[in-house]
Amino acid sequence: MALRKEHRIGRHATLLVLADDESEQQALINGLEWKWCSGKVGSMEAQKVVAAIETAAKQHGLIQNDVYREAHALYHTIMEALHGITRGQMQLGSILRTVGLRFAIVRGNPYESEAEGEWLAVALYGTIGAPVKGLEHETLGLGINHI
User: Which of 45, 53, 55, 76 has the greatest CB tally within 10 Å of its CB?
Assistant: First the structure.
């Protein structure tokens, strides 16, 4: 089955994370029957980034706490997005890097057929660099996975 052009889940997650405020985010997702949330995280530890995104997803009902496959799908989606942020080197603090990120999580079906089921997208945008103010640069990562 084909992707619906207007339902590109990764594109929506990326636009949400780049949006300047919540009203702009609402306008981007308006009309779609998808769940979504956004937030911020900054850390020198990748596991704290993962934990912040997982916590937000649980608090906003994007994944069910007691359904392992949903948490597992989210984990792999986050890891894929982090690979984009860290250019494939998943280390942060141990090699003197820190991140300041905004994130957006979207859950929905991007396909024409409902039988394709739901998918997750995680977009990350912010800065990465040495733990010295002003010595960072922009970064963007995206992960998409089926549930």
Answer: 53
Pairwise CA distance, residues 30 & 101, whole Å: 24
pLDDT digits (tens, 9 = 90+) for 120-129: 999 999 998 8
Name the 3-class secondary structure at 60: coil
DSSP 64: -
CATH at 140: 3.40.1510.10
CB proximity list for 75: less than 8 A, separation 6 or greater: 50, 54
Q: What is the mean pLDDT of residues 101-109?
A: 96
Model confidence at 36: pLDDT above 80: yes
Cα 66 to Cα 64: distance, rounded to the nearest angstrom: 6
Q: How many domains does the chain have?
A: 1
Q: Are 111 and 3 in contact (CB under 8 A)?
A: yes
pLDDT of residue 26: 83
